[in-house]
Structures
1.
Amino acid sequence: MATIDVFDMQKNKVGALDLSESVFNADVKEYLIHEAVRVQLTNRRAGTVAVKNRSQVAGGGKKPFKQKGTGQARQGCSRAPQYPGGGVAFGPQQKDYNLSMNKKAHKAAMRSVLSYLLKENKLTVLKSWEISAISTSSFVSVLNTFALRKTLVIIDEQNDILELSARNVKDVKLLKAEGLNVYDMMNYKNVVFTEAAVRKVEGALQP
């Protein structure tokens, strides 16, 4: 069974945690990780960019001038694309970019990333992360104690003090266990869990 050391905030080892083999020692399936990241990033696209075509531009119902006798090319509408204020020909329209990934494959991708991070020694587990008052310096001092840069912090429950302490720290993101995702785990160099958050994630990702 895979195990990982558990530390307090002063980097003193306070125990060891047995990890689920199926979650933290699974086969690393890179194609699933790639698919999960692609789906997540693509679904961020709003797809709301759009321009009006000639049928959507107001006005222009009247023929601008008579068909013959003016010496000009015949025109049927002053809202055609060649006119100022006319509609746009072949312009962008609203589009739904959403992709989907079935739950079984997504869970397998999550397990793959966690297993990869454990093998690469990029996972750190804290017994708990408690700060008595809002303090960015206190939060940063814990990261400095572990020499962590560009870090994703995973906690087990809402902690307003910790969230406010972390929000202005560069290259740090704090998530609850329910919000853990493939892209963020791959985007940050280190991932810090509280012990309770590890158990929540294990329970959610059992095959």
2.
Amino acid sequence: MSLIESVDINTLLGCQIALTLVYAVVFCCMKMIYPHLRGAGSVAIAFLLATVANILLLFSDSLPIFLSIIASHVLLLSAFVLFYTGVLHFFRSPRKIRYAWFLTFLSSALTVYLVQSHRHPMALTWTIAISFFLIRGVIALEVYLQAAGRAFLRIFAFFMALYAVFALNRILFLLIYHAPPTQAQRAVIQTVSVLLSVSFAFLIGLSFLLMLCSELLTLVKEESERDLLCGVFNRRGIEHKLDAELKRTSRAGHSLSIALIDVDHFKAINDRAGHAAGDSALRDVVSAISERLRSHDLVGRFGGDEFLLIFPRTSCPDALTLASRIEQSVRERTVHGADMALTISTGLTQAAHGETAAPLLARADKALYSAKNAGRNCCRVLLHETHEDSGSNRVLLTPSHSDVS
């Protein structure tokens, strides 16, 4: 019977070695391909250490006790600390891990002393069990604290907590039976322990892999909606934001205004100072706009030298004030490499209740071309198509004055 149990344990350890090695390779490759994935590197090293530790356990009968017990447990404990590090990095948690490494060092020192002394076998059991319980427990707690609104993370935290409690199995056995387990009981406990370790290694690796895949999808989506030159939303990204804000505005009944901005004489900038100066001018315009925007306002590059600004919960008069500040901020900058001041033309409008993006953008575009036809370096406001010809809805802003035409 013991031979069968031994074969079963070795088989399970072999499965765990293969599993942890696969996870180590997968997470290492993900980190190499996507360097911005937070925590993947630490988790890859954690699974690599777990692989080495399990190899030492698999060949424990033919290895010195220093390697079979001390080194394997130190490696496993370090693996959990590194996994905890990866979890903290993934969630951008401000918590430090000094205490976890201190616990690892203290536990390792106690393990070395107790193994070498051969006088305190029960103390060795307590040291190893409590160390793994604490490390696994803080991982479970961290995941639970970050699981608000995400049922998957709560389930992961629950299983991790069970894994932490299971680390105390031999201590619980002593507390219940008031005696150490017999050889047969130890074999059963060891078999169950390795089986659960394989199961939890699979669940832990799969859970973190799903977390990274979700983060990767988010990064890909964000990159697909970002303008590489200016760092703001591209046309697709800002149009998605506009659709979302219009729906939110329709439900809440708030005001929403938008502005289309065009960099004046942008072709002349490229012709006189070169395309590098033109790129720099676009970035300067974005910087000037961003300095004046509120935290809930949005900006995106709508075309070559056009930008779309979204002002949620903002009426047209308030948006006009913001546009005036943006124009002033832009005028304070100059084109590098050319004796030219940066100026912009702005077309401003306000969304009607239940209005969709297409007519709203068309009206802002008409207001922008009205500003261009008026000589540029000004802002035109077009409130409603039916009032366009009356003139009462247009506001002209120049660097020196503003008037209503």
3.
Amino acid sequence: MVTLAGIFPPMQPPEQICPVAAAAESAGLAQLWVWEDCFKESGIATATAMLATTSQVGIAIGLLPVPLRNVALTAMEIATLARLFPGRLTAGIGHGVLDWMGQVGARVESPITLLREYTTALSALLSGETVTVHGRYVHLDDVALDWPPAAVPPLLVGGIRPRTVSLAGELSDGVIIPSEPSTDEVRAAVGHFYAGRDGVPGEVVVFTSVPADSKARDVAAAVSDYAAAGATHVAIRTDEDDADLVRFVGFLAREVNPMLS
């Protein structure tokens, strides 16, 4: 069965983070996603506030832009959250919006090379390994976490182009497909994702948006279509930046989700 999730977009003010997370938990929503856009809210800080405000709802970060973050720092932050809130965190990484990366002096010549090196190193650090690597972009010398997570949270990679999705299938626990993909795009991405996994299951997360005044049956139908195309999780936000997210996450949990059972 597909997992229905809500999205707290960084266009919303930070002071709405905790009320929306509390509403999602109260309504029984399984998962709430956040992401890190320049130059809005930190994905780690937002996830921390949500996890601390709640006790059951899963919190997922998608995406942390890897050119912006040293891999050791990201490993430290994810490990800390995983130990504080075991079993409730999912972490997603991606190569970021290249223009934004250029604005902060972090744009790289080969984003796919960086993403490969970064994903490999991050997975190893979170697994408690001591890592020495001198790649094109990632450089670690005898680095290990003092407090690795007791249970490593799922690590997902975001993208829709074949090379990135194939990398996600090879190196991570799942793929995040952003930007309201068509069902045909999801099917194609699923094929690339599973091609190198030798039958190992993974998560296929689709990000999409709907009008704030959508009917529950229409949203449920769209989620079901994505599920039929291979999505395991569908995360939804409204297409209105000033929408009432407290109401919207309740709508997803109480009105849409029962139609998916």
4.
Amino acid sequence: MTAPRIGITPWLRELPTPLGDLTRLYALDPAYAARVAAAGGSPVILVRDARAQDALDGIDGLLLSGGGDVAPATYGDVDAGDCEDVDPDADAWELALIEEARRRRLPTVGVCRGMQLLAVAHGGALAQRVTDPAMHPGMRALPAAETLSRRHEVELAHTSTLARALGTARLSVNTIHHQVVADPGTMTVVARAPDGTVEGLESSAWPALGVQWHPEKMDEPEQAGLFELLVRLGERSRDARGQPLEALARG
């Protein structure tokens, strides 16, 4: 049996190359693919040059990576001037992927921006800035090394699939985000920071969950559990399409 194919969304950025100072390139931290591969999956980068239906053909699981802020218009709000690195086309593309994944009951994990888009796709909304800058400083508020090493506590619902995957109901996570989930829509909040920031969401209707932190950038061993869960769900979903998250994750 071949390894489950896990589709990963990249981000389009304008970066300097020999062809120009602002060359549009797909960008993705290789840690995402490395974590999927370490968990036993086969990572596949999904680009926008396809319909969502075609992009997910042959894919056993979907990993929505981080990226820029979600455009407020995407969830029916007005930009208050605090958003950074927005790309409405990326929002539309990834929401189409989420909708197609939901239609297929395809196991899906959202990281940071990915979790925020899961909330939006389920009728939720975002806050355009964090509520507690001391606990969740902006990405440019600290030196890069401190941003990567800084941790804050998160408490998870004991009965959640996320807690079972990570093997704990309390852990320390990083803060590499600018926006937060204000309304989870029909998703269930399963993790929060001490300041109330939503740190984890799950759906009981289809195999989908998200985390606000960046597990791919953390060396703590429990973080591997999230990718192992996605790969395990992807493997099982090939023979059990349509089961809810809790049923797929059991055992």
